[in-house]
Amino acid sequence: MALKHLSTALLALAAARVASGAVTKRVTCPTGQTTANAACCVLFPILDDIQANLFDGGECGEETHESLRLTFHDAIGLSPSKGSGGGADGSIITFGETEVNFPANLGIDDIVDAQSPFIAKHNISAGDFIQFAGAVGVSNCPGAPRLEFMLGRPDATGPSPIGLVPEPFDTITDVLERFAEVGFSPEEVVAILASHTIAAADHVDPTIPGTPFDSTPGIFDTQLFIEVQLRGTLFPGTGGNAGETESSLEGVIRLNTDQSLARDSRTACAWQSFANNQAKMQSEFRAAMSKLALIGQDRAKMVDCSDVIPVPKPVVGTPHLPAGASMADIEQACATASFPTLTADPGLSKASEREGLSASGSAISSVVVTGRSRPSLLAGASRFPLPEPRTSRRCRVACRPPRCRPPPALLPPTTDLSSLRFLWASATVSRTGVCVFAALPLAAPPFATSRRHHHSLCF
Ligand code: HEM
């Protein structure tokens, strides 16, 4: 009997070595790329397809954000205490008719619908596709780490139970317990929440869909960890929504759970530790994502195809306080170390913004509206001519004249447009059909004049 166990174990070990590529030489795939394991060659055509047709040519845009969210909502669906769910097994798509209707999955149908044709077209399991698309999408965001990707998730056998995906109105105790069930420490929970640096909410305040969680939703930077630590002073939309708390910036929404993780004694120091440490955030997020992507899976039976994932571009910009903010606005919560000293973005102060909002004059010559609160309103547009806005699946908010006009003035009439680089702004249609604008000056816009940026404005 012992001998039988030994030989089974040896066989399993041999299979695992083959699967992990340990005995396989680097190969050149039929498509020309090289990879550590021939089994990974199937991924290159999928990579090209999704970069072109899901991520709009490699954007860190809405589909990237939604794909990252989907990796989580699929993977967290395992609960030893509730006795079922397969984790990162693709059940959120395979058994979408059940899981997509869970309240915590509100809005996830968009990306389930967008990804499903790719799974049907390529020979890949839904579980593998979801994690692959998440890793590829994240690689489109400057500043992101290159995520690990392990291939080999079998098809899901059933839906996950309801109630496993955390909600923004959950207590931190509930959130930490839920994550602990799938092996995450409080520090790892904070690390994986770096995902909210490239995120927006469509449904938390449905009057302002596409409102981001920080001022730089197209960059995988540390601004989330800084901006959530600032004292909340406003609601970007209507306020009073479940799971939402006051944010410190116009056009930025704050989740109650993010607010509390930044202030709870169990997580505050971890939160603060990322505020001006891009490298730490990258490496700990990467490690946490590796763990997430393998919930319910057996690493030993999988193939490491991480070298198929593109290498992300470096981060753009440096950690800073938003224009007009000071260190006095930081709500210190970590008991053992001070929040790192940061300087404010030298844009227009909040006071001049207010002045600008009531001033007259016509500094704005072109308005482009997206549903994602990406930089969408440009001053001095004559220098950067823009095509007409259009409505598409990615532009859920369509503001067009005459219903929606540029605000008469967002800038003091004395503003020297040549010195002003860009306004970062969001615009949405309120329930009454009025266009609501929020503008923030950016001193060092990462987008500048690049064509990629224009593309992400959904022309
Ligand atoms: C305490 C845990 C978490 C809570 C309560 C939470 C909650 C939320 C909520 C309410 C939204 C907005 C959804 C909408 O209204 O459209 C959201 C968006 C998002 N979440 Fe989380 N989340 C959590 C953890 C995570 C994790 C672990 C990841 C990734 C690994 C993640 C990735 C994202 C992304 C990328 C978005 C943006 C989606 C988009 O822009 O369309 N979240 N999250």
Automatic annotation (TrEMBL):
The keyword Protease does not apply. This is Peroxidase. The keyword ATP-binding does not apply. Residues 1-21 form the signal peptide. The active site is at 73 (proton acceptor). Ca(2+) 1 binds at residues 74, 87, 89, 91. Its cofactor is Ca(2+); heme b. Residues 108-338 form the Plant heme peroxidase family profile domain. Keywords: Calcium, Disulfide bond, Glycoprotein, Heme, Hydrogen peroxide, Iron, Metal-binding, Oxidoreductase, Peroxidase, Secreted, Signal. Binds 2 calcium ions per subunit. Binds 1 heme b (iron(II)-protoporphyrin IX) group per subunit. It is found in: Secreted. Heme b binds at residue 196. The record marks 69 as: Transition state stabilizer. It comes from Mycena belliarum. SUPFAM superfamilies: Heme-dependent peroxidases (SSF48113). One of its GO terms (biological process) is response to reactive oxygen species. Ca(2+) 2 binds at residues 197, 214, 216, 221. Its main location: secreted. Disulfide bonds join 29-41, 40-305, 60-141, 269-334. It holds the Pfam family Peroxidase_ext. Belongs to the peroxidase family. Ligninase subfamily. GO terms for molecular function: heme binding; metal ion binding; peroxidase activity. PROSITE patterns: PEROXIDASE_1, PEROXIDASE_2, PEROXIDASE_4.
